[in-house]
Recover the amino acids of this structure.
């Protein structure tokens, strides 16, 4: 039996995750999004439940980028008509962003697209492999959360 070392397995895992990261599924998604715009838009509609307005700083924090980096994406998404920007009535310096009517239509289109993609993946993998994948992804998530918690304690 050919037994691999932990280092060899870690290298294979790193390579597989790298390939997965660079598939850019968003490039085949509907809409005129660049990958960073797509990520920003999807993050915004997860953050703005029930049409809530969101501060750009909250969006930047959610996606792990600086406010200036998210501002570039917001400007582009606003120019394309997917989001709107408004000022606070109490303090004109405070800016909020929200998904526009065109953005909501795109959100529905993207949800249908991703559902179809996942259903295709389930068909491709089959029931057994899909259940294994779900189990392993949940286990990976648990491991990553524990690592984050452990690093915060140090």
């Amino acid at each position: 039996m050919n037994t691999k070392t932990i280092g060899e397995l870690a290298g294979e895992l790193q390579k597989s995750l790298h390939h997965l990261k660079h598939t850019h599924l968003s490039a085949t998604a509907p809409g005129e999004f660049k990958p960073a715009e797509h990520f920003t838009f999807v993050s915004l509609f997860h953050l703005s439940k029930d049409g809530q307005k969101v501060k750009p700083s909250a969006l930047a924090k959610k996606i792990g980028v600086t406010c200036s980096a998210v501002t570039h994406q917001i400007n582009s998404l606003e120019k394309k008509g997917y989001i709107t920007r408004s000022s606070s009535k109490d303090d004109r310096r405070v800016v909020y962003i929200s998904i526009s009517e065109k953005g909501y239509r795109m959100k529905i289109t993207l949800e249908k697209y991703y559902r179809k993609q996942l259903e295709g993946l389930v068909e491709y993998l089959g029931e057994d492999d899909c259940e294994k994948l779900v189990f392993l992804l949940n286990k990976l998530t648990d491991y990553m959360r524990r690592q984050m918690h452990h690093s915060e304690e140090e």
Remarks:
- Strands lie at 83-87, 95-99.
- DSSP finds five helices and two strands in the chain.
- The chain has a mean pLDDT of 90.
- The two ends are 40 Å apart (CA to CA).
